[in-house]
Amino acid sequence: MKLESLEKNHYYHIFNRGINGCTIFNSNENKAFFLKQLDKYTNDKVSFFAYCLMDNHFHFVVRIDEDEKQVTQLFSNFFNSYVKAFNKQNNRTGSLFEKHFKRIRLKNEEYLRSLIVYVHLNPTHHLGLDFEEYKFSSYQAILSSKESKIKKNEVMQLFDDKENFIFYHKQRKDKLTEEYTFE
Description:
Blueprint: E1 11-17, H1 28-42, E2 46-53, E3 57-64, H2 68-89, E4 102-105, H3 109-120, H4 122-127, H5 139-143, H6 152-159, H7 162-179
Antiparallel strand pairs: 1-3, 1-4, 2-3
Helix pairs in contact: 1-2, 6-7
């Protein structure tokens, strides 16, 4: 499968999971470190619109703000830095993630809106947890008045306002809850 190239000024869904579905975050500290490294490596080169970190996978919704080669390399450096730290902490060696991070170029604004909601609903979909309370997604950061790397104003513009942002998420959550039963 040929990987989608990352083009400047385009939006992407970037995601990956642990090799063979293995855990890539053993603790909240791992997740916090992952986000810290993400900020360090992508600073001002990638704009973030949503993210969610699950125990065995992650999702980013981004816009590429620099040239393809530079951004692809910085993501590679970022993932390598996390894997080295994770392996050292867990006394393990070898690959942690599946071979290449996946990327899908978003074709339109509706897809972008839907994807942001999809990413935020991951804790509900996979774990039956309340997405509004989940600490390692951008949902709370978008609604917060605190400073964040997330492009909050641009996200709100996609949904028109805060009330529609919340409504869109809850409406999709209700549909999701109807489709799945959690035990």
